[in-house]
User: Fold this.
Amino acid sequence: MGSHTDSKDPHPTTQAGRDGLAALLSRPARAVVALDFDGTLAPIVPDPEQARAHPDAVPALAALAPKVASIAVITGRPAAVAVQHGGFAGVPGLEHLVVLGHYGAERWDAVTDTVTAPAPHPGVTAVRAELPTLLDKSGAAQGTWIEEKGRAVAVHTRRAADPEAAFEALREPLTDLATRHGLIVEPGRMVLELRPPGMDKGVALLKHVRETDAASVLYAGDDLGDLPAFAAVDELRSDGTPGLLVCSGSDEVTELTERSDLVVDGPEGVVRLLARLAAQLG
Assistant:
């Protein structure tokens, strides 16, 4: 469905995408712009702790945010970590920015610079304790590593000798472990995340759009974890709220590319898109 664009102004390849863009541009004050963080605002790097927003991301966001109802960064990361790695705190112009961390379980508001969150799921503590032994027994431990995410825990295989083989070898045992403790497994780009059910980017996006009473929505993502948000935009469209689906282009996740109205060249392309939208809104 989607195709890459390098033209000066964004040109969605679908009618639904064109309608979504037109609605955003015609009534920006009632538009929500929602974005994933890793792979969308920040380039993918071998160590997620080293991930930082593209250097032009904050200026583009600060130019666009005052012109729309809300900009929401929706991420699997803890909200505070995304704020730190994004450089979002204390930036003039970002008052309309919120970060929905842990798939919406946490919320950071730029206006108050505070995070609100419920109590963590007890299954995450149990899984965290069992993971090292499971990885050792699986034979796929070499080169894999555990990322601590507070309300979730993730196993990365990108550094393994054969990342895809390690990913596939771990999928079933990690799913069994998650199920025993009331969690689910969210696959991503060479990562398997164990987290509580009922938390996904689609749920977070729908809730935020409805709280904001938005009349249009743009969502940009790059990974399998963004598919629920894409489905949420489809749901909003069917209810009469126009939407634009943007893929931060990647050769690793073709499913997202095929579902998109507009494909841009990674975080750099996303940032260019945001800057162009800000310029078009004057």
Remarks:
- Confidence is low (pLDDT under 50) at residues 1-7.
- The CA atoms of residues 24 and 31 lie 6 Å apart.
